Amino acid sequence: MILADFLPSKRDRSWDFARQAGVTHTIARCHPRDTDLNPPWDIDALSTVQRRFADAGLTLIGLEGDEFEMRRIKLGLDGRDEDLALYQRMLANMGELGIGLLCYNFMATIGWCRTDMRVPARGGAITNRFQLSALDPAPVPPEDRVSEEKLWDNYAYFVRSVLPAAEQAGVELGLHPDDPPISPLRGVGRIFTSPDAFARAMALSPSLSHRITFCQANFKAMGCDVAATVRRFADRIAFVHFRDVEGTAEDFTETFHDNGPTDMPAMLRLYAELGFRGPIRVDHVPSLAGEEDLPPGYSYLGRLFALGYMKGILDTARIPYT
Questions:
Q1: What is the pLDDT of residues 183-193, one digit of tens each?
Q2: Are 154 and 146 spatial neighbours (Cβ–Cβ below 8 Å)?
Q3: CB 300: neighbour CB atoms within 10 A?
Q4: Of 130, 181, 289, 308, which residue is least crowded by CB atoms under 10 Å?
Q5: Distance (Å, rounded) from C-alpha 219 to C-alpha 178?
């Protein structure tokens, strides 16, 4: 396995903490609001970010999230072909620079969503919660809505458009689940909310570039057997997000890595048993004392705790990682 972390594309203390914890590989988002540069369809912008990390002793091995405005692609609006051409150029740039993974989602209009960012956790730590009953029920404007059926059509169009470019570039596209895995959300259809939906997505192509980002907690929230789902998709998993939640898709709370309902050591042993050799990262963590003002899920101390916990399991189980 490749022990990675998701780090900001401009240097801050998290880079130093990651290196001090033994991390040498990073995943990043290179949207202009993160980089203060052009989107990664500009190879000079992408190579600048790559050099920033290299200068700090970190290897950029993947991108994650929407790297530029994806609204027209996801909603199937006029102009999406121009945006898809930029996406294809981004993939070519990634291939040229040796960045072999793109973790992406197909959530339209509403992305990652929580209803409470200040939930008390162990010892006074702060975590987050999603509660459907607490979500504003008002639908988004009509022009921002999309049905599940239309979203499936848009997704298939997207895959047909970008997969050849990914194959040519040698880039793996890792589809991330919807978070939360609920549809509709304020009138917006969402489609990647169950293992069967992922099976439908993977059936679009057997390509080695058409893969899954296995966000463990999202599949847990779906109510499925997480270990069985890993086995089901073992040959399609490109990237693992290692975290846990307690609850259901309609009401869940993010936990520390060591006190959620999932047998986390067993999950790491399972990935190794099935031959997973790709990147894995700790994903969201609670905020510890003094870090309440940092972005939810990405506090420094919480990540160090999670990294140490994961490394301890890997070392104890003698699971090799870099």
A1: 999 999 999 99
A2: yes
A3: 19
A4: 289
A5: 10
Which residue range is the domain that position 205 belongs to? 2-316
Q: Which CATH number do you get for residue 119?
A: 3.20.20.150
Q: What is the pLDDT of residue 236?
A: 99
Q: Are 303 and 275 in contact (CB under 8 A)?
A: no
Average pLDDT over residues 222-237: 99
- Distance from C-alpha of 309 to C-alpha of 40, rounded to nearest angstrom: 33
Rg, C-alpha atoms of the chain: 19
Are 31 and 67 in contact by the 8 Å Cβ rule? The answer is yes
256 occurs within a structural domain:
yes
The tally of domains found in the chain comes to 1
d(CA 220, CA 247): 9
Q: Using CB atoms within 10 A of its CB, is residue 30 exposed (0-12), middle (13-18) or buried (19+)?
A: buried
What does the alpha-carbon distance between residue 82 and residue 280 come to, in Å, rounded to a whole number?
33
Q: Is residue 321 part of a domain?
A: no
3-state secondary structure the chain: CEEEEECCCCCCHHHHHHHHCCCCEEEECCCHHHHCCCCCCCHHHHHHHHHHHHHCCCEEEEEECCCCCCHHHHHCCCCHHHHHHHHHHHHHHHHHHCCCEEEECCCCCCCCCCCEEEEECHHHCEEEEEEHHHCCCCCCCHHHCCCHHHHHHHHHHHHHHHHHHHHHHCCEEEECCCCCCCCCECCECCCCCCHHHHHHHHCCCCCCCEEEEEEHHHHHHCCCCHHHHHHHCHHHEEEEECCCEEEECCEEEECCCCCCCCCHHHHHHHHHHCCCCCEEECCCECECCCCCCCCCECCHHHHHHHHHHHHHHHHHCCCCCC
Q: Report the Cα–Cα distance between both ends of the chain, in Å, rounded.
A: 7
The percent of residues above 90 in pLDDT, for the chain, comes to 98
Question: Within a domain: residue 322?
Answer: no
Confidence of residue 24 (pLDDT cuts 50, 70, 90): very high
- How many angstroms from the chain centroid is the CA of residue 297? 13
